[in-house]
Structure formats: C-alpha cells, structure tokens
Amino acid sequence: MGGHPDPVDAVARSTDPDVRAEFDRRVREQAQRIRDDIRSGRLDTDEFAVGMELEAYATDADDRLARIPERVFERGGCAKELGVHNLEVNSPATVFDAAGVAEQADRITASVDTAADALADEGIAPVLDAMWTIPPAEGTDAYLGSIEDRDGVTVATNMRHHPRYIALDNEILERSGGAITLDVPGTCLVYPTILVESLATSIQPHLQIPDAGAFPDYFNAALRTAGPILALSSNSPFLPADCYDDDPDVISATPHELRVHVFEKSINAGAPRSEGKVRFPSDLDHATDVVDRVVADETYAPVLADGDDGGDASPYRATLPEYDHKRGVHWRWVRGVVGGQPVGTEDAGASLRIEYRPLPTQPTVRDTVSVQVLVVGLLRGLVAAGHPLTDLPWTDARDCFYDAVDRGPDADLAWVTADGDRTDDPETIYDEVFAFARRGLREAGLDDGVVDAYLDPIERRRDGTVPSAWKKARVREAVADGATLSEAIEAMQRAYIERAGGETVFVDW
C-alpha cells in the first residue's frame, strides 16, 4: 500500500519501548490541550448534528463470502475494514434538523448504491447483515486461520495488509499467547489471528452535542438506552454454518447478538484488565472524563505521526494524531469522539460527539435510517425533557445490555419512567422510548407525520419481530423439516441475502 511502512517494520516500531514512551507522552500532551479546549468552550458548537457509519460484507454469485478488490475502494463510495471481505460506508455529518435528517437518508442510500455499483462490476455484491454465515469455498477455519510468518510477524492472509491492522493483530496475539479463542454455544474456535473479529459488522449512529458541558447527560442516557434499542435490532445469532456440529440445541442456546461476543472475545484476548479492552463503559461525571479515559486506557500498537498523517481528519484532529490513534483503539460500546469538524462552522472549529456502537448492521437502508433516527431522537428527547432515566443504576443498565445481547427481544429490560418509577415492563418501556424519541425529533423541527414515517420500521418490531428472531425461526423450521443445522443456517442465510438491501423493510418480509 503506497505511503505505508512495511508491516514488519510497523510491528517493530509499535513494540519499540522508546516509541511507546514517546507515543504516550504525546497522547498526554495532546489530551491536556483537549481538556483546556473543552473547559474554554472551544468544543461547543452551534448545532446538534448527526452522522452514520455502516459496515457490510461482500458475497459472490453463490452467496459465498468474497474478497473485495482494491480497485473498488479506489472508485470511492466505501472504505476498507479489517477483513478483505469488509467494507464501510459513511454519511458525513449534517445538522440535526428536518433537512439534515432527510439528507442523512439520501446520503446513506447514495453511498450504499455507489458501493453496490462498484462491487457489481467485480461480480460481487454487498450484504447488509451483522455476521456472515455462508463461508468461502475453502471453509471458515481455513479462511480465518490462514497466516504467513514474516520474520516473526504474523500476517493474516485475509486481513487488509494495512500496518495498523497487522500491528494490532500482533499486539493482541502477543498478549494472548498466540491464540484467539471463541468459545460460544455449539462450538469452540481457536485462531492464530484476530481476523475472527471480521465476522461481525455494525452500524454506528453519531450525535454531535453542542454544549460540551452537557455531554455527560447525553452519554449516560445513551448507556441506559443501549439494552432496549439492541433488543429491537439484534441480528447476529449464528456463526458460519460449517463451524457447528449437527446439534439443533444450538438454535435456542446461541445468543441473539453473537457479534458482541465475537468482538469482545477476539479483542479482549490477553487484555491486562479483568474488564477487558472492549466493554460497556461507566458513567461520565465531566466531559473531560472522555479524554482521561483514553489516556488511562492500555496502549495498543502505538504509531508516531510523521507530520503527514492527517489524512481525512478535520484540521483540529490533525493536530492530535497520537491521541486520535489511541482513541481509535479505545473500544467501548458507547464512546466520545473529540475534534470532528462541526457542521456549518469555520474550518478551525471542533466538536464533541457520541459514537453509539452497540448496534448490528440492519437488513435494509430504511431500517438503518429508522434505527439512526430512533437513537438520536431518543437521546435528544430524554435530555431535553429532563427525564430521570439516569437514575437507573449503572449496573442495571449494563446487565440489561448484556441480557439483550443474549436474549434479544426476550431480554429482561430495565428502565426508570418519566415519573421516576423503576420498571421492567416492555410495553411501558417502549411507550417511553418512542414517546421521547418523538419529542427529540420534534425539538429538531421534524413534523409528526415525517417522524412517524422514519420510526415505523423499528417501532413495528415491538412485538418481537426482530432480525435475529427471524433467523432463528427459519433455521428451526428447516431443521424440523429434516435439514442438518449447517444446511438450515445456509438456507436461512440465502433467504436473508435475497431480501436484504431491498426496498421492503424487515418487518414486511
């Protein structure tokens, strides 16, 4: 890759004690500047703003996992991710108002269409899904386990050969004794690379907060919404079909959101702290806590900027290359992002935004936009109303999230109502979720009819009709008709791929 150091050299640099010490020194120095800017109001902005990241994977004409050629990315419209089969499309931030939300929908649609056109020229297609389950021709174990040793550096064959990815892989492998173990219902997989993480894909709504001083209110509310929203959107109950023996008990035992387990188990392997690198974050007391946490987080695969590494970063973030690199490996299910270019302000501006990371990729663009609008509307509505949701103990919010990971729409939810009452009743909880999302969207200037149209695809899932439940039901039916578990998973996945990415929202499948 032009302009990037050799992977072996990159790993050597990232493990050099002097490089690591200088990296950490620069992070601390840049972090202090950010703290000062938060306190001075430099990260305050004129508007709320919204954005989106959407990850997907590619398949061939036989619905099997496919490598994406480099020339696809050269055409624009999508970016690279960890695996050679992964892609990501982004919608640049827009003001959080009626026009901005509509523009988000248009931009996401246009980006997915552009990526699909570029992939079609290669005889492959994107799949909007949270986990691939039809393996490539060589099989999942061969694909995820294929590595090359380059002078003691592990290079995964099917990982994008970007030095950053390879350095991260080798750092985690060193910490974990050279093996990544994924032990989940129905199977135990062991690989010599973190490429197993490339099984999982997600969507990540972003919300720019105009008043940095209020950032903890939005962040702490976000933590308490993660469980209920994940329960409406779960979409990754199965690993690739060839990972399992023919055990139908897997269907009921497997979590609805295996994606979360895959990411945590692959990246947390050998993590120095019991809670791991990837985890549900704790509450914030001050906006500057966002910065303190990045500084305190364990340093993985450090890279020193050489003065030309600004890339696509905003002018402000370009002055914080080491901090920004470390923030990129500060893996939390909700996290703060410092320094992005605010919408509609001068080039020197900067912002503070929430990156809402716990959600799986959804089956269609309309479903994706619906989830995005629900998230940003709900956070804005809760805080605007002074809702007491943050009175819910943090441990209950965390437990609710992980129960949604495991049980999807059947999770034990946790909530505090507008009247201050604790409840676990799903009807009461979702009545408030959608009521306060509507309030936040009205605060942004959206008309009621427009709001209803955006929320309808996700609100209709309240009866438990969520993608993961659909997948489990299709597999269960096929097994009952005589298929093996692997055959049933593949048949389900082909039916999913046939529908995914179309105009018909998931609840109407």
Low-confidence stretches: none
CATH architecture, by name, is 2-Layer Sandwich
> Helix/strand/pairing class, anyone?
alpha+beta
Q: How many discrete structural domains?
A: 1
User: Mean pLDDT, rounded to whole units?
Assistant: 94
| Percent of sequence in beta strands | 5-15%
Q: Give the end-to-end Cα distance, rounded to a whole number of Å.
A: 42 Å
Q: Count of helices? A: 17
- Please summarize the sheet with the most strands: 8 strands, antiparallel
Q: Helix proportion of residues, in percent?
A: 40-55%
Please state the CA-atom Rg, rounded to the nearest Å.
22 Å
CATH topology title? Creatine Kinase, Chain A, domain 2
The number of distinct β-strands equals 14
> Quick one: overall form?
globular
CATH class: Alpha Beta
Explain briefly what this protein structure is:
With 509 residues, the chain is an alpha+beta fold. It has 17 helices and 14 strands. It has a single domain (7-502), classed as Creatine Kinase, Chain A, domain 2, CATH 3.30.590.20.
